[in-house]
Amino acid sequence: MKFEEAKNQFIQAWGTLATQWGISRTMAQIHALLIISPDPLSADEIMEELSISRGNVNMNVRELIDWGLVDKVIKPGERKEFFSAEKDPWKITKQVARERKKRELEPVLKVLDQISNIEGDKKDKKVKTFTETISGIKRMAANADKTIEVMLKAEENWFFNSLLKLLK
Amino acid sequence: MKFEEAKNQFIQAWGTLATQWGISRTMAQIHALLIISPDPLSADEIMEELSISRGNVNMNVRELIDWGLVDKVIKPGERKEFFSAEKDPWKITKQVARERKKRELEPVLKVLDQISNIEGDKKDKKVKTFTETISGIKRMAANADKTIEVMLKAEENWFFNSLLKLLK
DNA sequence: TGTGTCTTTCAATAAATTTTGAAACTTTAG
DNA sequence: CTAAAGTTTCAAAATTTATTGAAAGACACA
After folding, report:
1. How far is A90 from B64, CA to CA, in rounded Å?
2. What would the pLDDT profile of B7-32 be if each residue is shown by its tens digit?
3. Which of B123, B34, B83 is nearest to A129 (CA)?
């Protein structure tokens, strides 16, 4: 396979994956482009590569920066801003986990806390099923939360090695 | 908090969570409703509870069945079909992981394999960065794949206990 | 076979999300 | 201060995705 073809396939695949994750296709494509680029790229270069508008680049790059996945880089002597992405997959994974924990898991835990103590007839089957189910989910979510914390503190090798030893 | 209020909050929260995961809001709301319902529900009951159309219920229930999260239940003597959801959060989590692995991780691994051997000048910085980044992602994805396999074979207690011991 | 009950399909419609592009804004340098 | 180079904003347009509802299909049973 030729380089250009492989590159386009990668950008395409990364974009498709992202849509299944609630991240916009364009944001993921920009990320993919920056990940495989040896040097930081300018807004113009991103526009050119992906055939998208300036406004679109600006918005999505801003969100990538917000996620902590991309940095603004100023080159001495240049007026333009450039952008570069973290390339280490383990660091990317941890950063995504950190953000998703904050954005998704923590709000859910908050709601679960609020709704776990309801007034009502404990003999009512509906109430009973509800409280039991909610407390089960709460326990599960708390475990997931702790697991992510372990992961965030771990090194890749240490984390996966420890984990994979469990398989034996 | 009253039961009805708590119930609506839960359905709402579950639906919001789902949209961040690429699952449609309605599908998640139906799931939430079935999870907290002591008995299987009919299409009519779901329509009524969530104020959505019959066609919508049918399509989303079908997809939940496809995900292995919901079962069709036939009550003896009743013409209608009823639906019930698995309530054990650990089983739900494993089922979701199983499906996402199949739908997302495996296709990505396939693409990564295809694009990891490119012809081209190995001294070209672009080519070098590309191959290095791709192989790093591949290794990461393979690790994630194995980790999910471990998880699928594990019991909740065993899995989290082993994992949390690592924290100390 | 005909009838009533329930399920499925899918084209039309509605809603939500993404993208564009031009105007407003900011910054740097002379 | 002014012009040039660049960045940001956001309302309108385009696109994508979800929902409806009516019609067609399936099934049980007399």
Report:
1. 32
2. 999 999 999 888 888 789 999 999 99
3. B34
Output the distance from A158 CA to D18 C1' rounded to whole Å: 44
Kindly report the backbone phi and psi dihedral angles of residue A37, in degrees, each rounded to the nearest multiple of 5, phi listed first: -90, 125
Interface test with B, best of A14, A36, A122, A134 (most B CBs within 10 A): A36
Tell me if B90 and A7 make a contact (CB, 8 A cut-off): no
Instruction: Give the whole-angstrom CA distance, residue B26 versus residue B18.
Output: 9
Distance CA A19, CA A16 (A): 5
- Cα of B41 to nearest chain A Cα, Å: 13
| Residue B10 to residue B32: CA distance in whole angstroms | 7
User: Span B81-93, mean pLDDT?
Assistant: 96
| Nearest partner of B11 among B27, B32, B31, judged by Cα | B32
Query: What backbone phi and psi angles, to 5 degrees, belong to A156?
Result: -55, -55
Amino acid in position A168: K
Q: How many helices (H) and strands (E) does chain A have?
A: 8, 3
